[in-house]
Design goal:
alpha/beta, eight-stranded parallel beta sheet, binds flavin mononucleotide, about 40% helix, 13 helices
Length: about 325
């Protein structure tokens, strides 16, 4: 193992700072279908699953994805088969990856988040799960999601509830929405609730209109924007949280930077802004070699500069 690449997210040791970002890598079959499966798994620090809820959800009306300039809009609406089937069908397969598994969770109320996390704790008999990522930030479901993500009190309550139900069984990551006036207020609330780490950003609310039909393209009308076009927003939000939240700055609550990453320069930008690890989503739809390419390029960069990722976290704050 390269000694420069591993990072720590609270008690989780990741062999590389590269994570899948939730919802963009499926939960089981997708990686198995790829010819470069082993190289992908060797590049990943952890696998973050698609959002899982207490009960099965069919998601939003189609069409659910549309390509826009430098990105995509999606309104999947958290389609999933529910936590019980997830444990029966997906977790045994995911365990074979032999990397930490982080389950992205979504719910419509504080108590439902509590119930769901406790259910995961009960179902996780083999200790297959390393972390839970609380999605308080989906912009395209009617219940929960965006409403949670914009309200500091609710975010604090959700995190406290999840923490109280699972204690220290899992590393708790709170995934923040960019669709707020001041993301640092929401980040602070999650820290007050006891989160172990923050991840940011989820997608930005957006819309595309079919000019022939003169109506919104997505079945749900609005969707979440992701891909290269959102990277400057993500980098800014990581920078601000690192700057203004003391626990992020002293790295007792590390940040996972997500949004628009396509190559290793993008990963470095996030690290310099204050992220300890990074999640990659939309680029994966364009280039299934993205993880192995970034892994190799980061390795080369660290060898050339005699640096470690951990040493580079937040460097942009020192150079002003
Ligand atoms: C098709 C799709 C599905 C997604 N599903 C989820 C989800 O279930 N839970 C979640 O927290 N984020 C979800 N996201 C957001 C991504 O995890 C990520 O935060 C966002 O896409 C920005 O990263 P990117 O620009 O690298 O894609 C989804 C994104 C896409 C494109």
């Amino acid at each position: 193992m390269n000694k420069s690449l591993p990072v720590k997210i609270k008690n989780l040791v990741l062999k590389t700072p590269l994570l899948t970002s939730s919802g963009t890598s499926g939960s089981r079959d997708e990686i198995n279908l790829l010819q470069n499966r082993d190289r992908i798994l060797a590049s990943l620090g952890a696998f973050v699953t698609k959002g899982v809820s207490l009960n099965k959800s069919l998601g939003n009306k189609e069409p659910r994805i549309v390509e826009v300039r430098s990105g995509i809009l999606n309104s999947i609406g958290l389609q999933n088969k529910g936590v019980k089937v997830f444990f029966e069908e997906d977790v045994p397969e995911l365990q074979k990856y032999e990397i930490p598994i982080i389950v992205n969770i979504s719910a419509g109320s504080v108590s439902e988040f509590g119930q769901l996390s406790e259910r995961i704790k009960d179902l996780d008999k083999n200790n297959a799960i390393s972390g839970l990522e609380i999605n308080v930030s989906c912009p395209n479901i009617k219940k929960g999601g965006a409403a949670f993500g914009a309200d500091p009190l609710l975010v604090e309550q959700v995190v406290r509830e999840v923490k109280s139900r699972v204690q220290d069984s899992f590393c708790i990551i709170t995934k923040l929405s960019p669709n707020v006036t001041d993301i640092t207020q929401i980040g602070k609330a999650a820290v007050n609730g006891g989160t172990d780490a923050l991840s940011m950003i989820n997608t930005l609310r957006g819309m595309a209109i079919d000019t022939d039909k003169r109506k919104p393209i997505l079945g749900n009308q609005i969707g979440g924007l992701s891909g290269p076009c959102i990277k400057p927003v993500g980098v800014y939000m990581v920078y601000e949280c690192f700057r203004k939240i003391p626990e992020c700055r002293n790295r007792s609550v590390p940040i996972i930077g997500i949004g628009g990453i396509s190559n290793y320069y993008d990963v470095l930008e996030y690290i310099f802004a204050g992220a300890t690890a990074t999640g990659i989503g939309t680029q994966w739809f364009i280039n299934t070699a993205v993880f192995e390419e970034i892994y190799k390029d980061l390795n080369d960069y660290l060898n050339k500069t005699h640096e470690t990722i951990e040493n580079l976290v937040g460097k942009a704050h020192e150079n002003i």
